[in-house]
Amino acid sequence: MAGVAGGNDFQWCFSQVKGAIDEDVAEADIISTVEFNYSGELLATGDKGGRVVIFQHEQESKNRPHLRGEYNVYSTFQSHEPEFDYLKSLEIEEKINKIRWLPQQNAAHFLLSTNDKTIKLWKISERDKRAEGYNLKYEDGRLIDPFRITSLRVPVLMPMDLMVEASPRRIFANAHTYHINSISVNSDHETYLSADDLRINLWHLEITDRSFNIVDIKPANMEELTEVITAAECHPHQCNVFVYSSSKGTIRLCDMRAAALCDRHSKFFEEPEDPSSRSFFSEIISSISDVKFSHSGRYMMTRDYLSVKVWDLNMENRPVETYQVHEYLRSKLCSLYENDCIFDKFECCWNGSDSAIMTGSYNNFFRMFDRNTRRDITLEASRESSKPRATLKPRKVSTGGKRKKDEISVDSLDFNKKILHTAWHPKENVIAVAATNNLYIFQDKIN
Amino acid sequence: MKTHKRKLQPESSDECPGGSCGGALAWERQRQFVFSVSLHKYQLDQELPEPSLRRSVLISNTLRQVEACRVPSHERAPPSLISLSADPDFTISPAVSSILTGLDSSLDASAPLPQLPSPRAALRSLENLQDLMEWEAGVEAARSSYLTDITAEDMFQDIDTSQLERDMGILGLRGDGCPPAEDLPYHSAKGLPSFSSFSSPPTSFRDGLDLEHLVTMLVES
Fold it and tell me: For the SERTA domain, which residue ranges apply (chain B) (predicted)?
């Protein structure tokens, strides 16, 4: 796959933007998760209002062969509703924390969506035919008096307008005391894991009334709690392996064959701290907000507040690659702590060939890093540069005293505009970037 | 939700301790700033019915770290930051522990309906040390008045102790059979400075509030 940072053979350009243009953003419309399915044909988003919107990739148009097809709305449904836990007098938010697709096995599509407490399996299916000519009922549904039936006929299937139906097939509830931060489908396509702040559970997709607790880091005395689970993921090929990250910047790889309870890790990944950069906020910025295996399964990537790190699963003592996302913020950590931005949880993603990685930043900037050429690029998701087929201009943040033309100073960054969720098409150079309540889709310009 | 651009104020880049980064005074100011901000966040989180566990743990760890770096005034020099140790003499541990215990107890105990959290403070510049300097001046004034033999009772003369006594009863600070701290609703201590427990071991919840200790902590912090 071609490099990400520009050059003669590759350029990112605007394709589409979804969502309202209003300056006043409704809280419920804020996108909280973005995920392509395994083929890239479908793109799902979840929002704070508990809704899931699925876009479908339509084929290229003959009129615009230089662009891949567009994504249009395929299905919209309310996945989660706000709930009230009467026992604890606590409100349970309907915000969709994560969506994960299941591998497609038949004509229907399945996905898992979760809020803080409950995971749901949804079936999305198409109906473009309907049966006509029933023997026992009229077309409007009224039953026919059996004594009036004098002959039998075989109902025939007639075409109808395409209807996409989303129906909840399973509800996995009451297994998490703390807030769910991750779900991950296992490579066996039968099980999946869900992780909250202190525990990880293993489910079978067919069984909703029980799950196996495989990790529990809750101390007997909560006064001793100094670390929480921040993310977890199943290995893409080895169904016995999963990893989970912590608020102290560590990653533990566990093998479910070793023991029923995987409190003891098989591998422990941690980079020694650089004493010269130590500050009061060292631990907070080391907290890992996302962990993703590469498609190959050989590497994993972690995102902390200032950087993205690529780890070789065979080397635990340090990452093999480190990419600085916005190092210019290191001198601003005091302010970012005060305004809570330091607690923002950025996600990261691989491209289909694992040659590039992407993550978000502030001011609606997002960053891409080419692992082969070591080049990086900063792009912006903004309405101003959202002209059809417009090539995105690289952005730069000035850190020195003199600001060049087209650069933006650190003090001018808008910390309300944060790109927390991004997704990369599994096969093509198409990316989806969530900017608050808007979903931007960019793709490379095929030359 | 109307959005407006928030900008960072220019702040000192002296995030690290040590003489090469601006001196002991700047470092101590930053430590105190981080301490006060952390405490403020902790108190805000107590208003929430179910605060984020990750956030609470990170704030409490930061509080521990900041308190661990505190040096007596006569020894004030830029120490190197030490990582959190298992030193049982950490005076902040009991209060920090109360955060986490309260988090756990909130899952079992009933609590009133959620309240709106206070709006976040606007960004402040560390170099805009006017606020800090005024605060320090206030601390100095309090310290000097403390040194002129004002008793603890005099300092709290204007405080309505009836409210204080009721809250102390809620927290189980009086040994009259009130429930232990672990079983209490998460945010029962409105208005009562919970950092009073900084100077006390965890078991002192039942032993009563030592006003002299409270005054000492207020002045020193």
Answer: 27-74
Nearest by CB: A416 against B3, B107, B126: B3
Predicted confidence at residue B198, as pLDDT, reads 36
d(CA B24, CA B13): 15
Q: Is B15 close to A333, i.e. CB distance below 8 A?
A: yes
Locate A35 and state its tokens: 């995920």
pLDDT tens, residue by residue, B45-84: 888 888 899 999 999 999 999 988 876 655 544 433 333 3
Residue A386 has pLDDT above 70, yes or no: yes
B101 Cα to chain A: minimum distance (Å):
6
A278 and B81 within 8 Å at the Cβ level: the answer is yes
**Higher-confidence position of B50 and B128:** B50
Q: What pLDDT digit, counting tens, does each position of B132-174 carry?
A: 444 444 444 444 433 444 444 444 444 444 444 444 444 333 3
Rounded to the nearest 10°, the torsion over CA A279, A283, A289, A292 is: 100
Buried b / exposed e along A102-129 (16+ C-beta atoms within 10 A): beeeeeebbbbbbbbbbbbbbebeeeee
Q: Which amino acid is at A128?
A: D
Where does the pLDDT of residue A189 fall: very low under 50, low under 70, confident under 90, or very high at 90 and above? very high
Query: Which residues does chain A have within 8 Å of residue B55's beta carbon, measured at their own beta carbons?
Result: 343
| Closest-CA distance of chain B to residue A179, Å | 8
3-state secondary structure of B178: coil
Sheet order of strands, A348-350 included:
A348-350, A356-360, A365-370, A376-380
Residues 6+ away with beta carbon under 8 Å from A290: A231, A245, A302, A303, A345, A346, A347, A348
pTM: 0.74
User: Where would I find the beta strands (DSSP E) of chain B?
Assistant: none
Give the pLDDT confidence score for residue B170 in this predicted structure: 40
- Name the residue facing B124 among A25, A280, A335 (closest C-beta): A335
> Taking the CB of residue A283, how many other CB atoms lie within 10 A of it?
23
Q: Are A73 and A55 in contact (CB under 8 A)?
A: yes
pLDDT tier, A333 (very low <50, low <70, confident <90, very high otherwise): very high
Residue type, A369: F
Three-state SS annotation for chain A:
CCCCCCCCCCCEEEEEEECCCCCECCHHHCEEEEEECCCCCEEEEEECCCEEEEEEECCCCCCCCCCCCCEEEEEEEECCCCEEECCCCEEECCCCCEEEECCCCCCCEEEEEECCCCEEEEEEEEEEEEEECCCCECCCCCECCHHHCCCCCCCEEEEEEEEEEEEEEEEECCCCCCCCCEEEECCCCCEEEEECCCEEEEEECCEEEEEEEEEECCCCCHHHCCCCEEEEEECCCCCCEEEEEECCCCEEEEECCCCCCCCCCCEEECCCCCHHHCCCCHHHHHCCCEEEECCCCCEEEEECCCEEEEEECCCCCCCCEEEECCHHHHHHHHHHHHCCHHHCCCCEEECCCCCEEEEECECCEEEEEECCCCCEEEEECCCCCCCCCCECCCCEEECCCCCCCCEEEHHHCCCCCECCEEEECCCCCEEEEEECCEEEEEEECCC
Domains of chain A: 12-444 (2.130.10.10)
Residue with tokens 């600085």: A324
Q: What angle do CA B201, B51, A208 make, to 5 degrees?
A: 115
pLDDT at residue A307 tops 90:
yes
* Residue at A323: amino acid letter: Y
